[in-house]
Amino acid sequence: MITHEQCLYWDKEDELKHFKDEFALPKDIVYLDGNSLGARPKNSLNYAQHIITQEWGEDLINSWNKADWWGLPVRLGDKVGQLIGAKQGETVISDSTTLNLFKVLSAAVKIQANKYPERKIIVAEKDAFPTDIYIIEGFIDLINQGYQVELIDGVSDLDRVLESEVAVVVLSHVNYRTGYFYDMAEINTKIHAKNALIIWDLCHSVGAVPMDLNAANSDFAIGCTYKYLNGGPGSPALLWVNPKHRDEFWQPLSGWWGHRKPFDMAQHYEPAKGIRRYLCGTQPIISMSLIECGVDIFLKASMQKIREKSLKLTDLFIDLVNQECSEFGFELITPTDHHYRGSHVSYQHPHGYEIIQALIARGVIGDYREPEVLRFGITPLYLGYEDIWNAVQHLKAIMQHNEWKNESYLVRGAVT
Amino acid sequence: MITHEQCLYWDKEDELKHFKDEFALPKDIVYLDGNSLGARPKNSLNYAQHIITQEWGEDLINSWNKADWWGLPVRLGDKVGQLIGAKQGETVISDSTTLNLFKVLSAAVKIQANKYPERKIIVAEKDAFPTDIYIIEGFIDLINQGYQVELIDGVSDLDRVLESEVAVVVLSHVNYRTGYFYDMAEINTKIHAKNALIIWDLCHSVGAVPMDLNAANSDFAIGCTYKYLNGGPGSPALLWVNPKHRDEFWQPLSGWWGHRKPFDMAQHYEPAKGIRRYLCGTQPIISMSLIECGVDIFLKASMQKIREKSLKLTDLFIDLVNQECSEFGFELITPTDHHYRGSHVSYQHPHGYEIIQALIARGVIGDYREPEVLRFGITPLYLGYEDIWNAVQHLKAIMQHNEWKNESYLVRGAVT
């Protein structure tokens, strides 16, 4: 039997508890949606004021040099790289995850076409965040060279599909709905054994779980900075390329930021040496700069300690729902095995949408994903054990009093 | 003979002079680089504070609905649309100019391939901003269907190339170096007579010259918001599609923001009806939102009045350089005919780079572009007649005293 007092004690003993002071969170809410939009680092306000008044307003175009706007994608990429097992010069921040997938997919397909021209299958998951599938479809339609996408039903379906002519596999490191956490090294070994290449979508794993892209021998990776990394709404995305592939090919979104000599105004594209060839056009400097506020907090913490606390908090959430809400029909769809669990917990429930609305009305911010999934993001830097206790108590009250049966909760707006 | 007093008189009579108060410019400088990075609207600071503290910090994911982050690309697109002769629902703000060119180029090529499969030539200008050429090259390499790029030497070379199998022509409405301003309607007529399609790059014309994309019967347009429109460094770009083409095809950067039902998490891409199909992934909300501050100032002014003042100021610049600097070897490369002049004035000079550095040291901020081009952007909303007088006086003093002969001015940094 877990008690409120026990949760208070765990908070008191929590080594990471002081990191909550680095974030500006609204009062009286429990924010369980940091896996969709990370909370705001307090520093972000001062830093934005500096960028806007000094870098833009006062220094104007001189900031391309003085504030090194030009170097931001690589400089911030190297910082984020420390959280994903990348070495310097392997990562850039640029554009969106969707666009970055188009870039690395183009590169991966080109590399494979040179070696294994008969391989025409690109594998993705049925349960991937759909933009990954959409961009693969767009790419295949565009190049019109006989490629096809094959959708698999999770990892258990991977062995089957690898018996066919697979060129590239695109997988989410942590599934955005279920929280299933793939064993990167094990999957890579399997995929490489069949001479396919792997692209990892890190949207729901960067800043949530420790990883080492190099040690696991991954090929390509992309991911968001505005979820666990707290970079701000829609902040530009990360892109990582294994150095062994980096100079093999460039990518077709070949804009001037990726040119070898961007200021020569040359009439033909020549890709930059190194990771800069994965850049395209001019970047949104304010949204990009603010990524640093979130990432710097992570660099002061340790991904190992964040992971330990994440597992304790997700365990607590699962145990408390078992203890307090067992009669209300919540079906856990997140793995109980730590080895396969990311940093969010999801349940299916036929009234999931309305229950999430009722929770939000009580100040517990989780989110809803089709079909029928209640999703609770666990962000150890700004959540404590009592927060989880309170969230589950609200959930219990809502179910006991049928608070979710409210007509206004059936009106659906945009969710992201 | 133009005098300082005459310039002061013109400033006094200037109907647009009060708009300067809307901008936060550094003291004691003359900013002639608003065609590279527009000045900062004063409002942008308060608005950024609101977005960061309230929309991001307090309202968190609720802002996707409450602040309509989701609708920003179309809402801001419609505002910018008023400056380019677009009707509601024809324009979006999204990604970068380079990426938007890839999208509309893909659509234009697809539309043409269905009607005129033998047409395999994509025309661009030798003197285009190079990213336009680079993205065409990237596109051609990727699809590998026998397309080729043909570079023309300005408008006089267009008739020649239109005798061959041209599918699509990409032109800069105002050339980034020379300031040459194409007659959109005349060129469109010529291109359409040969059954080719036109893509206009408006980077150096939107907010600088009046235009009417619909009246001129253009096909596609793209352009920057961070130059004349003062949207902030690297703010996302505009994309316009003629309604007659809008539903013919979508584009291969098919991300979830362009899906017909983005929140259904469907397993196949289905393009949205209307202009939203030109969206791709999640947008940088802070950088995008700030575009509104700049555009709202334009919507209070009139593009016709801005154009009239722009021509007076560029005339004044040219006349004063003739009057004060005739012996120093500046060769005007901007058209003297108003019909063909955008809103910047450019000169070639063998010591252009060092002269620009000397001007910057005196607080006159112009910029340099290879080869040997001194470029002076004229932004009527925050520049007056005395500013032009002062700029030319500084230029004269630098040439008279050989101030540009300074070793430190030979060290070249990044310029944009």
From TrEMBL, chains A, B:
Please list the cofactors this protein needs.
pyridoxal 5'-phosphate
Judged by the first EC level, this protein's enzyme class is: hydrolase
Mark the residues carrying the PTM N6-(pyridoxal phosphate)lysine: 227
Give the enzyme's EC designation. Answer: 3.7.1.3
Residue sites binding pyridoxal 5'-phosphate per the record:
97-98, 129-132, 201, 204, 226, 256, 282
Checking Gene3D superfamilies in the record gives:
Aspartate Aminotransferase, domain 1, Type I PLP-dependent aspartate aminotransferase-like (Major domain)
What highest taxon heads this organism's lineage? Bacteria
Swiss-Prot/TrEMBL keywords? Hydrolase, Pyridine nucleotide biosynthesis, Pyridoxal phosphate
Family statement? Belongs to the kynureninase family.
Name the UniProt record assigns to this protein: Kynureninase
Q: Which gene encodes it?
A: kynU
